[in-house]
């Protein structure tokens, strides 16, 4: 393991899609950047996703605005980095089973559209046409957003990492952070490096990393399992849209199979009971999938904030910035998150008011808006 340089302008801790986006955009802006990753690049939350980037996030126009900006960056990604993300439009269908969900959509639609989101309310029958597996009798209506794309998350990580290195950033894998001193010295098994600014983008380990610098980021770790099931003969040849049920059940086409997600067993729930619960929701909402076996696909951990919205900002008392708590939505926000952190480092204003992304919203007086 080669030694680290003695100092740098910025140390980015975390080598997932968020950390690599930050490192790339800092390096391209001429900022001396060293990225430290405890394992392999993209081995944390970035490898746990359903592989979809989208612009619509129900009830949260701020996050949607970050996703809209990020989606535009992904469309230009191949030209910028030379990496093909395999973007394939599949659309997003959010099912509503209660009148208050429909009303919430109506109340926020104008704000979503002002944020640049293409989304409309569709009837249950229209939802059934968009995804023929949906039992339209079980829903009242749905939100339909065509701007959702299947993609290759690993290509996003590799593309940003390669561009970061080409711009002069140093990326070190298998280099866990073991300590952070008050003067900005970061300790690892490969040695220590002093940074003018530290950026925590450590995903599920963000809280632990921040605590080393005496900073509190209120993130928790949420484990998820992704499951696979067979595609019924009645399914259309075209890819099914990403479809989300209020129970948190979600499905989408995955090659010639169907990807199914609904968290992981609760602490007091056996895996068999959880699988039965998933199967029940699956069979109720998508009758053609009733009785189909569910196979293990992959699992991982997500970094989750108390309100499901990311923390992107700076600590008020030291040069410590953070981008964490993306709650499974980091892939959709990585380009915009990198841009915000870059602007904070350079003391530039971002394209939108990012005060609501600070930890201050969850920690009274512990952080100020970034």
CATH class of the largest domain: Alpha Beta
Rg computed from alpha carbons, rounded to a whole number of angstroms: 21 Å
CATH homologous superfamily of the largest domain, by name? Answer: FAD/NAD(P)-binding domain
Compressed to H and E, one letter per element, the order equals EHEEHHEEHEHEEHEEEEHEEEEHEEEH
Strand residue percentage: 25-35%
Q: Helix amount, in percent?
A: 25-40%
Secondary structure: number of strands: 19
Number of helices: 9
CATH topology of the largest domain: FAD/NAD(P)-binding domain
Any idea what the CATH architecture of the largest domain is? 3-Layer(bba) Sandwich
Q: Sheet bearing the most strands, described?
A: 8 strands, mixed
Terminus-to-terminus distance? 35 Å
Q: Determine the mean pLDDT.
A: 93
Structural class: alpha+beta
Low-confidence blocks of residues = 365-370
Shape: globular
Count of the separate structural domains: 2
SSE topology sketch:
Layout: E1 7-13, H1 17-28, E2 33-36, E3 52-54, H2 61-75, H3 77-81, E4 88-89, E5 92-96, H4 99-114, E6 120-123, H5 124-130, E7 141-145, E8 148-150, H6 153-166, E9 170-172, E10 179-180, E11 185-188, E12 191-200, H7 206-212, E13 220-230, E14 242-244, E15 250-254, E16 257-261, H8 271-285, E17 295-304, E18 311-314, E19 320-324, H9 330-345
Parallel strand pairs: 1-2, 1-12, 2-9, 5-14, 12-19
Antiparallel strand pairs: 3-8, 4-8, 5-7, 6-7, 10-11, 11-12, 13-16, 13-17, 14-15, 15-16, 18-19
């Amino acid at each position: 393991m080669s030694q680290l340089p003695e100092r740098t302008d910025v140390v980015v801790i975390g080598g997932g899609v968020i950390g690599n986006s930050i490192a790339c955009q800092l390096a391209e802006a001429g900022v001396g950047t060293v990225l430290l990753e405890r394992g392999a690049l993209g081995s944390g939350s970035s490898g746990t996703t359903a592989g979809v980037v989208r612009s619509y996030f129900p009830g949260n126009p701020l996050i949607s605005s970050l996703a809209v900006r990020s989606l535009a960056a992904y469309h230009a990604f191949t030209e910028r980095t030379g990496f093909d993300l395999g973007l394939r439009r599949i659309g997003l269908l959010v099912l509503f089973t209660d009148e208050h969900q429909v009303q919430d959509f109506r109340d926020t639609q104008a704000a979503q559209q002002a944020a640049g989101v293409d989304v409309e309310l569709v009837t249950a029958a229209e939802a059934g046409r968009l995804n023929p597996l949906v039992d339209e009798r079980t829903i009242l209506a749905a939100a339909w957003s065509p701007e959702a794309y299947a993609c290759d998350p690993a290509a996003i990580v590799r593309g940003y990492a390669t561009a970061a290195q080409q711009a002069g950033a140093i990326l070190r894998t298998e280099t866990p952070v073991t300590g952070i001193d008050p003067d900005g010295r970061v300790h690892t098994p490969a040695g220590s490096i002093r940074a003018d600014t530290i950026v925590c983008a450590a995903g599920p380990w963000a809280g632990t990393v921040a605590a080393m610098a005496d900073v509190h980021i209120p993130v928790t770790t949420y484990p998820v399992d992704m499951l696979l099931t067979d595609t019924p003969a009645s399914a259309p040849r075209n890819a099914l849209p990403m479809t989300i049920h209020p129970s948190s059940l979600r499905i989408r086409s995955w090659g010639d199979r169907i990807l199914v997600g609904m968290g992981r067993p609760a602490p007091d729930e056996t895996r068999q009971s959880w699988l039965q619960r998933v199967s029940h929701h699956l069979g109720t909402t998508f009758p053609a999938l009733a009785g189909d076996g569910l196979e293990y696909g992959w699992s991982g951990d997500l970094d989750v904030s108390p309100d499901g919205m990311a923390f992107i900002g700076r600590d008020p008392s030291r040069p410590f910035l953070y981008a964490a708590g993306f709650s499974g939505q980091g892939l959709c926000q990585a380009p915009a998150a990198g841009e915000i952190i870059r602007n904070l480092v350079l003391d530039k204003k971002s394209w939108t008011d990012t005060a609501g992304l600070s930890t201050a919203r969850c920690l009274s007086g512990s952080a100020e808006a970034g």
